[in-house]
Amino acid sequence: MDLSQKNAENIEYMIESIKTKLRMASGAAMSASAFSVDQYEDIRDVYELVMNKSNLSISEVEALVSELGKLRSK
Description:
By secondary structure, the protein is mainly α. 57% of the residues lie in helices and 0% in strands. It contains 3 helices and no strands. The longest helix has 15 residues, at 8-22. It is globular. It starts with 7 loop residues before the first helix and ends with a helix.
């Protein structure tokens, strides 16, 4: 997957990967369609951070979920 392309398909891929890695119980509440391509770089930053860590603490997961919540389209 070429994540250098800013499009809805890549956002969906990254959000789904983040939800899987974080084992989010409320993953259904975080739909890829809730995010705008305008926030692509921020979403990619979160994606890369999550994918590059082998383990995440509870506080890290909470901070990442909070950040994704801020990036959701209003």
